[in-house]
Amino acid sequence: MLVLHGGREHGTEPVRRHNLAYLRMIPLARALRAPGVEVWNLRYRVRGWNAPSLDPVKDARWALDKITELHPGRPIVLVGHSMGGRTALRVAGHPSVVAVCALAPWLVPGEPFEQLRGRALLIAHGDRERMTDPAKSLWFAKQAKTVTDRVARFNVEGDGHAMLKRARDWTKLVVDFVHGELGLEPVAPDISNAMREASPRGLDVPLGGSRG
């Protein structure tokens, strides 16, 4: 698994280990650990997306190539938050990637989606989001559904961008999806049910209450 943290639209300062966007993903990376699975928590060289350079995309592609070199033939699942979600979606076409989990992804109109063909996709967005636009992730999910049947999108009720108020539920959703896609556990019923629904059903599913 490759975990991708958030950032900002512009910024060439280095990402430090104490940056909140990087720290936010460490507990999630730890929760994803399982026997026989490697979890890589990528720290970008710089903090910004920095179009047209797309620095985090370059870093993620480097990491994917490195993982593939070390573990040829092994499937990779991407997990990204905010700018990391956008980065994960951009690099989903890498031959080793089988699934993408985008949490509160930062997306813009015209975001490419063809690279998701043949991959599984899970998007989750809080309904109290103030940093990224849930409507844009819903739009993206609908586009992705035209190239892959295996798309689900959840609304995390009562939480926002930092994923703190319902951290346990965010974590369980991600772990269920990732471990299911890697064949470590059966796919969770709420995820598999959402993926079976025709668009737009299954792309606007409330994640209400505790998932255990």
UniProtKB/TrEMBL annotation:
Q: Does the keyword NAD apply?
A: no
Q: Which InterPro entries match?
A: AB_hydrolase_1, AB_hydrolase_fold
Domain AB hydrolase-1 positions: 2-189
Q: Which SUPFAM superfamilies match?
A: alpha/beta-Hydrolases
Q: Does the keyword Hydrolase apply?
A: yes
Q: Which UniProt keywords apply?
A: Hydrolase
The organism sits in which domain of life? Bacteria
Cross-referenced Gene3D superfamilies: alpha/beta hydrolase (3.40.50.1820)
* MF annotations from Gene Ontology: hydrolase activity
UniProt protein name: Alpha/beta fold hydrolase
Upper taxonomic lineage: Bacteria, Bacillati, Actinomycetota, Actinomycetes, Pseudonocardiales
